[in-house]
Structures are given as structure tokens and as C-alpha cells.
Amino acid sequence: MSEQPLLTPVKLGRYQLKNRIVVAPMTRSRADNPDKAPMELHAQYYAQRASAGLIITEGSQISPQGVGYVHTPGIHTPAQIAGWRKVSEAVHAKNGRIFLQLWHVGYVSHPDFHEGALPVAPSAINPHTQSYTPSGMKDTVTAHALELHEISQIVRDYVQAARNAIAAGLDGVEIHAANGYLIEQFLRDGTNRRTDQYGGSIANRSRFLFEVVEAVVGAVGADRVGVRLSPANIWNVPADSDTRSLYDYVVSTLSGSGLAYLHLREPQGDVSAIPNMVTNVTEHYRGIYRGTLMTNTGFDRERANEFVRKGYADLVAFGTLFIANPDLPERFRRGAPLNQADPQTFYQGGPKGYIDYPELSV
Fold this sequence. Notes:
Strand content: 15-25%
Order of helices and strands: EEEHEHEEEEEHEHHEHEHEHEHH
CATH superfamily: Aldolase class I
Shape: globular
Low-confidence stretches: none
Structural class: alpha/beta
Number of helices: 10
Strand order of the largest sheet: 3-4-5-10-11-12-13-14
Oligomer: single chain
CATH class: Alpha Beta
Helix content: 25-40%
């Protein structure tokens, strides 16, 4: 079935990708070591999926302050850099391309991760959810509102993390500005109640994102940087009072900036009753964004091919399908049956449900 648009090559930043199928960034909680560093298990997992046009790694915290889930890897210590180097070498040995996702969870974290210190956020808000800590699920607390000098330090942390990723041999980085984590907490007016240059207007609330993007681009080059946004997200954050206007501004500002790509999430669930919420995310922002556009959330082979064929997206990222089908591009090519993922093993640690899903026989 070589006529599938998904299976055609595409240019992404400085790279020519062999197809338009992307491994979506997915937390898998396998860095269960004191260093929070990728291990041989990670290298095997990602190498199994190197037939994708691009792999985007699980979110990796840019600093100790950025962690918010148990057993997630970082990209801020020598041990973590060494661990990611093993991953990049394994993927490149199979002619794959891999970007690392830069992550700071903000107020979704818990004092248990920070020796009792409060997690940080744009404003002193409790998200009233639960955090997956080393001792189990715990209620979140009211975060510490970042001071101006602390915001500047976080921008520097993003830059250093991006440099670390390139030093580890990864092909680029994705700035995680989605899913209700720190950057999206700055964007939304329900979680950003600041009265300084980072709060109030849409332009001010977007400032932190643009400072991070500009600084990371300056460090590693625009053609090695992607940005992930979730305009229809209501997980970890409330809807903005005018979500459409907010993301129209953000996307139009990023448009034409020379980024490797913009990565958008379609709605996860029904958000049609929320005022000023874009429900056809990719189609809507294709009309605004000039550049390589990637989409994600809820796609199967047929719908993904349709989106590429119609020009809505240049690439499609798959999550759960790639967990259970490391050879997903070949299964799409053959129209072969798909393995079914076992949700019980998504975060449990170890090789089961991680590197043991069968591939097609030749």
C-alpha cells in the first residue's frame, strides 16, 4: 500500500525523514534509578521504533524543579546525558531520527519531589489534582508563584537542557507547551493571575513561551526545535476565557519562524460545549501556521492518511499504537493487524509491556 501519504518522505528542519509517521512523546516511567537517567532498556525501546520518520521522546525534566512524576528521566546531569547518548546511538544505528521533549510540569508536581519545597507556577494556585509520587498518589498543594528572577532561571534551564540533548547526540528538541504543564499554565488566564509583564493580556501571558522558544532556538538552531501545543486541552488546566484568541495569537506568532515543526494535539474528549474553544484544531491552524505541521491524538491509519492527503498536517504522531506496535510503519504499509496495548503496563516499570510487543515476521 505504498500510495499512502503517510509513507512518503518529508523535510523536517534540517532533516529528510523517510516517512510522516511519528512516535508521540509518552511518559513510560522506566527511569527507576537514582540518577533518573535512561538505561539500556530505554535504548532498546526507542531503537525498536526507529522505522518511524521521527521519534519524540518522553518528556524529560529540564531541572530537578521540573520533575512531577515518579521514574521520569531528566536531561540536566552528566548521568542523564550519558543515558540519552546510548538512546540516540541505538536509534541512529537503525537509521532513525529522534528529538527529545523538554519538560517542566509546574504546579502538577509535589513537595515530595523537592525535599519539602513547593512546586512552582505562574501564580499561587492549587490545581486540585493528584501527583504520582515515590510513595503513591498524593493531593497537590498550592504552588509558589515564580518571581521574575526565577522565571529567567527557568529559561536558562531550558537552554542548558537543549544543549545537553544535542550533546547527547539527539537530533533536536521539542518544547512541551501543552497538557497543562508549566508553559501552558502561563498561557491560560485561569492559572496565570500575574499583574506584571507575564500576566494579563494574551501577549503578556505568551511572553514566557516566546522567551523559551527564542532562547532555545538561539542555542541549538530553529531547524532543530519543535513546539507542542494543546489548544483544546482541559487536563491540568481550565479552559481560557477565550481559548481561540489565545492560540490564534500564539500560532500566528510562531508561524514563519523557521521552527522544525509545530506539534498540535486534537481534543481529548468532547469540548464542543466550551465557549471559544477550537474543536477542529489541526484544520483550523493549518490556515494560520506557515511551516511544517504535526498533529496527534486519536488517529488511526485511515484518518491520518486523510489529514496528510488533504494537507491539514505534514506528519501524524501516534501514541498508544506505537506502544503496542514498534513496527507501526510496516504494519500500515501491509495493512496488517495491530497488537493491542495493555494499559496496566504503561507506567509499571520493567520490560513487560515496554519492549516485548511482537513485530511482524518477514
